[in-house]
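User: My instructor asked us to take a sequence, write out its structure as tokens, and then describe one feature of it. I'm not sure where to start. Here is the sequence I was given:
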Amino acid sequence: MKYRNANAVLPKELVEELRKYIQSGYLYIPAKEEEHRSWGELSGYRKELAKRNARIIAEYRSGAAVRELAERYHLSTYAIKKIIYQK
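Assistant: Let's start with the prediction itself. The structure tokens for your sequence are:
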């Protein structure tokens, strides 16, 4: 999330009104419900993780050991087990 200076994006009157409620600090303004995006949706990272996890599962089913997969993918054995047993 990128922070922006209120003076740069809001009308002066609105900034003055907001100061009545908060003097300084950060104010989070959530997106409208219909505009909300799931984690990783915009960057595509969620899809990349799903592909990686599918490869891990396929390799495990083909006989790769949990420890071997952990080393190959730079994950803990615990993380590999969570991926393998989630489905």
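For the description part of your assignment, you could build on this observation: The two ends are 32 Å apart (CA to CA). Try explaining in your own words what that tells you about the chain.
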